[in-house]
Specification:
The complex is a heterodimer of chains A (403) and B (227). Helix content of chain A is 46%, strand content 14%. With 403 residues, chain A is α/β, with parallel strands linked by helices. A two-stranded antiparallel sheet of chain B has the order 1-2. Chain B has helices at 32-41, 44-51, 68-75, 80-87, 97-113, 146-155, 158-171, 179-188, 192-198, 207-226, and strands at 13-29, 127-143. Chain B folds into two domains: 4-18 and 134-226, no CATH class; 20-131, no CATH class. Chain B is 49% helix and 15% strand. The chains are: A alpha/beta (403), B alpha+beta (227).
Chain lengths: 403, 227
């Protein structure tokens, strides 16, 4: 498939929004930017980078993407760090500190970080600034819900973060007490990516058939990594409550990212919990299953994202964009996307999820209206074009080219 | 006199793009007393962000609370009385941001004085103090006639409308008017349209509604002038 160009988005968001991007980018012509993260595939960050970089280049900004390398031990540590920063009680051992610092030191020597602006994504490569600092703006982009971090881990990480010239968070509540400017950029989805692009009904049906599904019964779908913060076991519990009175099937769709070693254990637990229930389908799909996920979201009667902690929750945005009502856990960025009675419902418990699922399953007309509003809400606030505009603003700010 | 439709300005109206980012400070309030302290000490830019730019942020259709403090009182503290009092504050009526700060403090203090407890929000629903960094960048659109102004108004991003209609009032002391009516007055004289723009009770309009209202007034003026 040909990569989309900015003009292709005008049909979706209007030509004026694209013109604004070009006008802003004129001031940044020729700027070089390098983005660094820890995985090329899997997870929301890699997805956003893959879609965003070509468009930044089309706007005249020379944007590159570098991926840090690490041993399985390093990714065990960074997974532990990820969980700890989201509030889990995880021990910070000297061995873990050493593995983290060693990997960052080694990558500092290996990665090509020459650029006018350096953007480092998430905690895994955050210490690069200690070993590879260049005399240009360095910005730390935190994608995770760090509203209540484990103190020991945050104390370990904070000195590295403090070395940056600015940091970016997805929600105001994630911002920390830091000695530099902090900016708010909410993530977004690409409406032209295979995961979100329009699909014909027969294509959707073909995907459903491959998984032994059809549209004869309501489908409840949660798409997310097998991660306990996404609470797939809570979704199964809620589904059992729903099935006492209402007919439906549950599909839990996940996959694993290269930097997520814990996923396999959670998947085992989910399979065990679903065992023997013919109405629950657990799908572990490879990371490139975009069309399959697109189809499952489109076929869903209700999309669920019952996260307990959430950086932002792009699967919520995806569900809304497909015109589906979404029930989300009241965590992270889900609360700014799911507005009660407008785009879906926020829930705080297994019982709450079961109640709202039954509420929507029994009001198909209302579910349809909510879905339509959700799509328009995303069109205005959570598409890639708005995200690009935020990045251009950030680059204008850190390079002082906005005046 | 030549009909308004055919008159051309000596200097055009130039639209600006207005883009920016919120800048969370990491400071948070869990209860009303903490919020009062935050308001007392907040930088003016942060008050600006929460009192005025709340207009710019994502909002679902009609809105009940015109500033972030009022929304927080209603949603997090579930204190409808306080939310009503804070909603009634008109920051555009304040002579400057310090005056707006004092008005906010007065409402919160008076409300606390009448209570035997301090209202708290549930964990996770804290008020997060943010500031903002916004750029007004010259756009490509120019209007030389009222008709061109009308066409551009229909197409410019809502942020641009906010900049020229709301922020315009904060730029010059003593001139509580918007850029559009200033331009019309400066180029075409004291037309009824100038007053019509300035009489809009914009405090209760979302930006899309405001756009429709401005276009409606321009259409009306152009038609009446023809007749």
């Amino acid at each position: 498939m040909k990569a989309p160009r900015l003009a292709d988005y005008a049909e979706i968001v209007g030509a004026e929004r694209i013109a604004v991007l070009h006008r802003m980018a004129r001031r940044l012509e020729g700027l070089s930017v390098v983005m660094i993260n820890s995985t090329r595939v899997g997870g929301g960050v890699a997805e956003i980078l893959a879609r965003q970089l070509p468009l930044l280049n089309e706007l005249g900004i020379r944007a590159r993407w570098e991926v840090m390398e690490g041993t399985p031990e390093f990714f065990d540590v960074t997974k532990a760090m990820h969980n700890a920063l989201q509030g889990s009680a995880v021990e910070l051992t000297p061995a873990r500190r050493d593995a983290y610092i060693d990997a960052n030191r080694r990558n500092a020597g290996r990665l090509d970080l020459a650029a006018d602006v350096v953007i480092v994504h998430d905690p895994q490569p955050a210490a690069l600034v200690e070993f590879a600092r260049t005399p240009v703006p360095w910005v730390w982009r935190c994608h995770i819900d760090a509203a209540r971090p484990n103190r020991a881990w945050w104390s370990f990480l904070r000195p590295f973060v403090a070395l940056y010239d600015a940091s970016i968070f997805s929600m105001a509540s994630f911002a920390r007490n830091l000695p530099h400017p902090q900016y708010l950029i909410q993530p977004a989805i690409d409406p032209l990516a295979p995961k979100n692009a329009p699909m014909e009904p027969h294509e959707v049906d073909a995907v459903l058939a491959r998984f032994g599904l059809d549209r004869s019964r309501p489908l409840i779908v949660q798409v997310s990594r097998f991660d306990r913060f996404k609470d797939p076991l809570g979704v199964i519990d809620a589904f059992r409550l729903v099935r006492r009175r209402d007919d439906a099937r549950l599909v839990l769709v996940g996959g694993s990212a290269d930097d997520d070693p814990e996923g396999a254990e959670v998947l085992r637990q989910v399979r065990r919990a679903a065992e023997g229930n013919p109405d629950i389908l657990v799908l572990d799909l490879p990371p490139d299953s975009h069309r399959e996920i697109n189809a499952l979201q489109r076929a869903a009667t209700v999309v669920v994202q019952k996260s307990l902690r959430e950086g932002f929750g792009l699967t919520v945005t995806e569900g809304l964009w497909k015109g589906r009502p979404v029930i989300g856990g009241a965590a992270g960025g889900i609360v700014v996307q799911v507005i009660d009675h407008q785009t879906g419902f926020l829930v705080h418990s297994v019982e709450g999820l079961a109640y709202r699922l039954r509420y929507l399953l029994n009001r198909p007309q209302l579910a349809e209206e909510i879905g339509t509003r959700g799509r328009e809400f995303v069109r205005h606030h959570f598409l890639l074009t708005r995200h690009l505009r935020d990045w251009l603003t950030l680059l204008l700010a850190v390079t002082r080219r906005g005046a | 006199m030549m009909p308004l439709r055919e008159r051309r300005a000596e200097a055009p109206f130039r639209f600006c793009d207005y883009e920016g980012l919120a800048m969370p400070t990491g400071q948070r309030a869990s209860n009303l007393r903490e919020l009062l302290e935050i308001v007392r000490n907040a930088p003016l830019e942060a008050l600006h962000h929460h009192l005025y730019r709340s207009q710019l942020r994502q909002r679902f259709e009609a809105w009940d609370f015109p500033n972030d403090f009022a929304s927080w009182a209603a949603i997090a503290l579930e204190d409808r009385v306080l939310a009503e009092k804070l909603s009634a504050l008109d920051p555009f009526a304040a002579t400057n941001l310090e005056a707006a700060r004092r008005a906010l403090e007065d409402v919160m203090e008076e409300h606390l004085d009448g209570l035997t407890f301090v209202p708290w929000g549930r964990p996770g629903a804290e008020f997060h103090l943010s500031s903002g960094l916004y750029f007004a960048l010259p756009g490509d659109r120019e209007a030389w006639t009222p008709l061109e102004l009308r066409h551009h108004l229909a197409e410019v991003p809502l942020n641009s409308l906010y900049y020229h209609f709301h922020e315009a009032r904060l730029r010059g002391p003593g001139d509580d008017s918007d850029d559009f009516s200033r331009w019309i007055e400066g180029q075409f004289g004291q037309l009824p349209l100038v007053d019509a723009f300035r009489r809009i009770d914009f405090f209760f309009y979302g930006l899309a509604e405001l756009r429709a209202r401005l276009i409606g007034l321009l259409d009306q003026a152009l038609v009446e002038d023809d007749g």
